[in-house]
Amino acid sequence: MKNGIERPLDVAGEAVYSLRVLPAFYESRVYAPAWSRDGAPIAAARELADRIRSADIEGLDPAAYHLEAISRLLGRRAPTAAELAELDLLLTDAFLILGAHLVSGRVDPETFDPEWFAYRREVDLVEALTRALGATGPARVLDGLLPAHGGYFRLRDALARYRALADAGGWPTVGQGPTLRPGDSDPRVVRLRDRLNVTDPEVEAPRATSSDELYDSRLEQRVRAFQRRHGLDDDGAVGAKTQAALDVPAAERVRAIELNLERWRWLPRELGDRYVLVNIPGCYVVVIDDGRAVLSMRAAVGRRLRRTPVFSDAIRYFVLNPYWEVPHSLAVRDKLPEIQKDPSYLDRQGFRVYQGWGSDQVSVDPASVDWAGVTAGSFRYRLRQSPGPLNALGRIKFMFPNRFNIYLHDTPERRVFDRAERDVSSGCIRLERPIDLAVELMGPQSKWDRQALEAALETGAEKVLTLERPVPVHLLYWTAWVDTEGTMHFRRDIYERDPLLDRALRETARGTPTP
Fold first, then answer.
1. In sequence order, what are the residues at sequence separation of 6 or more whose Cβ sits closer than 8 angstroms to the Cβ of residue 41?
2. HSE-up (13 A, CA, CB side) for residue 169
3. What pLDDT is stored for residue 456 in this prediction?
4. Which residue of 157, 225, 444, 493 is surrounded by the most CB atoms within 10 Å?
5. For the packed helices 81-104 and 43-53, what is the interaxial angle rounded to 10 degrees?
6. How far apart are CA 475 and CA 267, in angstroms?
7. Are 125 and 96 in contact (CB under 8 A)?
8. 423-425 and 292-302: which strand pairing?
9. Side-chain half-sphere of 369: how many Cα atoms within 13 Å?
């Protein structure tokens, strides 16, 4: 055994990996063959082979499921008993491994990314295989194991489109050069227009312009649309970042889509009828109700050295006019240097200093502390910021108590939402429109409508409001997705997680073995 994975069994030159489930399956059948009858393969065998052949539409490699050996054995006109036995084992292993990959992905993210906490699905694959061998058939059973989310299927359709583009040669590059702005004339404008014609074609036929090299207003609008769906400042100017996004090869975009399809397979089958979704690279928050986006807004997420983790939980309550208890790590890393530079910092920013907790809590006069002599190791204080316009949490925070101390909250730093790149926080998620989220979560029947919430906020007093039903919240990491309007989006891989996943997939011959 290596890394907890049994040594595979060799069958017809193929490595069989499902060494726990496969024997149990055949034992339940008293070792009767599953995929042949009267000396010939049954129809389900060829149906499974066809479904394996189409696994590439899911971003999976059909070769990983014994396709070549299965096709060769199915092609025998008069297979021997030994060949039928080999075919049986390979088909069973292929179904189990492919089923496991569709259910929970090829790899486990927690084995290579310490900040990814997946809630992966579990399915009784023996029961699924039994149904596949019955009237339902392998194709329908396997399709039933796919993620039951519209976003997965929209992205899967995009994979087919982008593969076709890549196979056709991709798109022309714009190339480096001075920033292109509306009104400029430049030979690169021709390439820019040709490049957008591949992935962002005009709805209407383009009008003739005075020169193909003129950066006209119609082209400007197309560039702005491209910038928006790539998370760039939509200023219409083709500077270094926009040019780099335009020139990413089609094959790289295909791989990004494949990686994000894998991430979809790590999600629970049920996200909730109504839930909050945070896309970390996209820097946005959306509320989904019965499959529809009913509220969306910009967000700010953790910067690279203070990453927002990936996990799911449920929002249980929110706090109006919250105090901010500064986490010890932030107090040492961020606040102590500020205090040492300016002893009046605490008073100006509305902080109070304490030692101890609960009944042992003692208020400390900041002026009594020799802050210059305090080090990270000797910092024994708690910093608490009072509600008000300077409070780092703004006027409201949404709580889903978790081991990471991560939550959604307002912020007094409103200018951050004017930026395209908003990976600037210390890990929590700052919201562009927190009151809108509060109203949405409370629901139309609640007495806590917008007017009531605003009135409570105006008092300046801290108030906790508990939701009648907790609302699931999912903090996810997608660098490629298709929105509900059918628009393809790509984002900068802010935490460089794509290469980690790509490497894990390439280094794993079969991915996670079946249980």
1. 35, 74, 79, 84, 87
2. 5
3. 97
4. 493
5. 50
6. 11
7. yes
8. parallel
9. 23
Q: Identify any residues that bridge with 325 across adjacent strands, giving them in sequence order.
A: 384
Question: Which residues are identified as catalytic?
Answer: 409, 428
3-state secondary structure 73-87: HHCCCCCCHHHHHHH
C-alpha–C-alpha distance, residues 467 and 317, integer Å: 5
CA distance 86 to 218: 62
**Cα distance between residue 169 and residue 166, in whole Å:** 5
Distance, in Å, from the CA atom of 41 to the CA atom of 84, rounded to the nearest integer, reads 8
pLDDT tens-digit map of 2-37? 444 456 788 888 888 888 899 989 998 999 999 999
Q: What are phi and psi of 339, to 5 degrees?
A: -65, -40
**Angle at 15 (CA atoms; ends 258, 33), nearest 5 degrees:** 105
Quote the longest CA-to-CA distance of the chain. 93
Distance between CA atoms of 502 and 493, rounded to whole angstroms? 13
Q: How far are the Cα atoms of 146, 151, 295 from residue 265, in angstroms, in the given order?
A: 8, 11, 25
Alpha-carbon torsion (413, 415, 418, 422), positive or negative: negative
Both tokens of 143, joined, read 């399709």
Do residues 406 and 474 lie in contact, with contact meaning Cβ atoms separated by under 8 Å? no
Q: Write the DSSP symbol of residue 230.
A: T
* Cα–Cα dist 60/69, whole Å: 18
Gyration radius from the chain CA atoms: 28
- Number of residues in the chain: 515
What is the rounded CA–CA span in Å between residue 216 and residue 210? 9
How far apart are alpha carbons 408 and 401 in whole angstroms?
Answer: 11
Distance CA 354, CA 181 (A): 55
Side chain identity at 355, as an amino acid letter?
Answer: Q
Asked whether 246 and 238 are in contact (CB, 8 A), the reply is: yes
How far apart, in whole angstroms, are the C-alpha atoms of residue 157 and residue 87? 32
Per-residue pLDDT of 111-161, as tens digits, reads 888 888 877 788 999 999 999 999 999 999 999 999 999 999 999 999 999
Count of helix runs (H) and strand runs (E) in the chain: 17, 19
